[in-house]
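Data availability (excerpt). The following record was deposited with the supplementary files.
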Amino acid sequence: MSPKAIAASWLTTRLTMTQSAAGLARRRERLWTALRPALGRTPALAAFADGPLSAVPITEVAALRADYGQWNSLGCSHAEIHAAARDAETGGPGEVRPGVVAGYSTGSSGSRGVFLAGAAERADYIGQILARVLPLGALVRPMRLALMLRANSRLYSDSGSRRRPFLHLPLDLRPDEAAARLAAFSPTVLIAPASRLVWMAGEVAAGRLALPALSRLFYGAEPMGEAERAWVAGALGVRPDPIYQATEGFVAAACPRGALHLNEHSLEIELEPVTGTAGFRPVVTDLRRTSQPIVRVRTDDYLELDPAGCGCGYAGRVIRPVMGRVTDIWRFAARTVTPPQLSEAVEALLPPPAQWLAIATPDHVELRIGHGTRPDDLAARLGERLGLPVPVLVNDTPPDPPIPKRVRSLAFGLADE
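Predicted structure:
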């Protein structure tokens, strides 16, 4: 991969980060026009290649994942794409066409997402990430990046170079082995699931683990409450900031102030209101991907805008860290509870590093908690805080290990939106 291509993407992204919201909107219009040739080669989108974005029907994630052969501009079949992704999963090149690689998402429910990316797209992606999450001078300073993922991918590993060495740590490594490799590699930037950061923070706080000094720390793929985020920051000496990456796009990233901005320099993100809540469901269009165009794909994530905003200068809208999916919302007849509301209520009663999982059914809520102290009247207080119409049952059985991902809220047998 060309370092010049990465640098060009970094520079372009940095320049867009100074534009106004209106300037970003005009840029998205230009990108949509430039995307038309790739749309014309994509079976699911060819009929809409010459029209406005608003004319493209919204597609559910499940429909896209059911036939990736319809959602690429390279003529690849669904079977070819999955075969290449499986090859990458086992350490192979994962190429579905010369220079074009496939890979799986971390996968938390249903069918796993698959991405396609050519060399230019991977360079563009890496340049965008470096520009969005690191300080202005990061590209010219040595940097050591460590990433904890279920499996390695050239989407990330291609970022490595002599000045930017890269370490992948698979999630099936024992935590102590992962910590030992981290210490030997001595990263300056670490990206990991929230559950791994919580484990590391606990080990550091107990004096059983020493981590190298980090310049930036990020979490993704799993929810992390504000109290937990502050606790990890206190233990590790650096604040963990969110990255919102989905198979459907690099949706949002935290600025140096810690605010999570939608990446509206390269994505068109429509926010559909979720009934009975203050939140939204995103409909994502990635205006920079040509091998696998993503146009008006409705994801399952539950988002809330952050009314505090941010004064960092980037005009992308600010959202609160993603705490769950729309399917995690509890809808009782007279009460709706969203994932952020649940997290705030539980963390007020069970401070970090308590591990927990709450499961709602039509006749009760089960709260599974790990070891540690808890209030004797935890069930009553949680029910009161959330205004629940059903009793809360506390189960001292710890939540299952976070494989493939940690979840905090589940709903069974409740009403849909």
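Summary of structural features: The longest helix spans residues 21-40.
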